[in-house]
Amino acid sequence: MTRLELGPFAEPIHAAGAWGAWWRAWYRLLRLVGGPLDRLARRPGFGNLVVLRVVGRRSGRERALPLGLLAAGGRRYLGHPSGDTAWTLNLRAAASATIESARIPRTRFRPVLLGPGPERDAAVRSSFRQHPFPGNALYRLAGRHVAACGVFFRLDPLDVAPVALTAPASAPASDHPTTAPPERTARPGHPALPPALTRP
Length: 200
Fold this sequence. Notes:
Elements: H1 3-6, H2 17-32, H3 34-41, E1 49-55, E2 62-68, E3 70-72, E4 75-80, H4 86-93, E5 97-100, E6 107-113, H5 118-130, H6 135-141, H7 143-149, E7 151-157
Antiparallel strand pairs: 1-2, 1-5, 3-4, 4-7, 5-6, 6-7
């Protein structure tokens, strides 16, 4: 997206106010339990938790952290409800990153920062429903703040196998060629049946 399309999100967002302070405290608490959350993300059926792996924009080292994966309109999203934080700044600077969980094999994607518009609105609304409790309730209570300050990315998959454009190779010739039985012609008032359904 161009800077014009990104609007206020073209530059890093610093969220202020009571909700900004609340979310900073909430995520400091989550960092304390990051290890257990990382392990839970690898267990089948644990909500929408995935492990994001992205190279740090300053350190150059891979960073891993658990996040809630969102889905809307057949696409995947990651978002932070209250402006930019370390991982969103890393995604802003990254050409690619990966996600993985017990249900999703390690998948490489290109992060696309969302500007104001219907796609971002859909991603924001999905955060109210798809995060497990209490995350969904917190996102809903802070809905206006999330809509104004949340930083959301679309995950465009990379390394997708190309669709074959050539016809499949023909079967090798047999040493004993056979001729296909002739198709049965239709009699008036009786439609013809495919060869496989007709008796010899």
